[in-house]
Amino acid sequence: MVAHGGLQCLMEPLLLEVLDNLEAQDLLRSGSASLLMQQVTASPFLWFRTYCNCYRGHLSPPPSFSELAAGAPTELDIDRFAWRRMACCRARLAPSLPVERCLSGDTVCREMAPPERAGMVDVEHNGCSPQSVVWQQPLAPLPLVRPIAYAELYVHGGASVGLVSGPAYRPGYHVGWLKGSLGYHGDDGTLFLGGPWSGAKFGPTFGLDPELVVPNDRTNAPRKADVVGVGIDFGDAGGSEHPRAEGEAGDATRTAFFTKNGALVGSVKVACTMRFLAFALHRRGDRASVNMGTCRFLFDIEAYSQEPQPASTLGKAS
């Protein structure tokens, strides 16, 4: 029992420890309970730990509240991030459309992932030729140190992953083979920039056994699970929902980048119209699970955002 003023007699670190167990949405609601709760829930340390617990639990644990108050060092520069805004943004990233409308594609099976991966969408190829799939809403930037849009796919099988300029993409074509698309291909690690003959060696293979896979997976190599990420680094251009026309100030700093299993693969300058996540599954049984930010990213996107924007690995993708 708390005497002499109830909550006001609790030391702030203890109250913070109690609130540290709440989800972001519950934390927001608790802030309206009283003036004291409003003051405590405004603590950047509280929102830093809340965000880390929800979205960085697989990385190094953050210091305790008492350690933070004493000035303990952290991997991230706490003062450079808007932790409350970031936590609220990630909490609202669950698909706003029914699962059958979240992703295009005729010969794929789509369903929401189980509760332990809440908000993710599982996709499986059940047709014959390669099947392209496009997320039906443009990638929105996360409010990090600099605006960055990012998504990850858990790939099991032959696939290409990248960006396209609109919500429609021609079935039967891998991403990067058509104009207005950029695709990183798992069978040979090639990056295609708007044409089937535009491929350039870019990074490691993914989704298939690297010892047995050949281009176009003609040997039906054994499948292998990998996590592939694609992002848009807006740099100084900003992340407005109404991006600048290409060629205006800031466009030169916009790059697309790719990751594999939590490591940066490379980046390329892109046209400002490329805002839609796209991927293609190569043959029947190939699978992918899409994480738009509702779950933890394997790649440390927060640490990436506080470092200088990397130089492009390749030239501009138009």
From TrEMBL:
Segments crossing the lipid bilayer: none
CDD domains: SPRY_RanBP_like (cd12885)
UniProt xrefs under InterPro entries: B30.2/SPRY_sf, F-box-like_dom_sf, Gid1/RanBPM/SPLA_SPRY, Ubq-SigPath_Reg
Full protein name: SPRY domain-containing protein
